[in-house]
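Input/output pair, single chain:
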Amino acid sequence: MAVASLNEIYTAVRLVGFWQFTAGGQNYLGVLEQDADETRSTLTILRAGDGRWETVKAISDEDVGIRAIDGQPIGGDLLFGLELNEEMSLQIARVELSALLDPANQAVAFNPSGEISPTDAQAQKVDLPVTQRWNVATPLPPARWLFSPQFVRGGDAPQLIANTADGQAMLFTPTAQPDLAAFSIPNAAEPQAAIVNGQQIVAFKRYPEPYYPFWSLPQYSGDKLPKGGDLMVATDPASPRNLSRELSIGPIIGYKMAASSDGRLWIFALSDAPVGTDVIALSQRGPEWTVAGRWSVDGEVQQLSAEYATERWHLIYGVPIEGGWSLRHQTWRAA
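Output:
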């Protein structure tokens, strides 16, 4: 198996999250991190160009309450999906994209544009055993906590998919919609979703044992997950498919779902290897999924981001290193 060449483009001490987005035909990377003593957060925007990444802007403040983050351009804005679990579960914030990407503009305004917590109907569906509950000093009871928010790609309006405390995948919007309460996938760790040709497709990891985010995610009580889970996809929440078994790729550590310029859906999955990490590229054609590529990368990759730009895939890998995280870049073209 070929070993891909990676280029380190950024290091962080305490990594909150990173994501890619495209604007004006160029590829960008957003990184949110905290300093070593957890007293300041910094949002850094980098731009790809001429074989290297350059910093466009870095914005710091004293807000260290964000536990996870995702970003997505909609219209002329960049939207942030923020995991808080304090007074509210999630928040959507909005910033004007042109202002954020202008190196000369240092007065960038981040505007809250929606608070998200489970509706009463959604909270009532959370079935958390007494042995899995927790007691921390926030106004929210466990049934109203949400974890691992990701924007649903391909939608016209902001919508997030996230885990509830008992590991269900549910959909959320800033404005409560009663019909969303009917959507639920049990034991669906770290879900992602996209709308392709009018059809919603959800991917997630499934472990042999029930998944409880608070006790598994490292930003809460430590990483107690097994080494890997099965990669699942679903167009019907009631009947997900197990791609780990169908395609004989085995358990995965992490994954990212994204669409190429022709609208085709892809999943890039991470698999543990004796040395380094294997990356598996899965492509959807109609109802079927196929393995379109597989290669190895150095380091024990735990997170990744994928974005199609400049006629190729840009893959960013998050690798734990001594004293923090290394973000490493690779480009890949499908054969």
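The chain has a mean pLDDT of 92. The chain has four helices and 23 strands.
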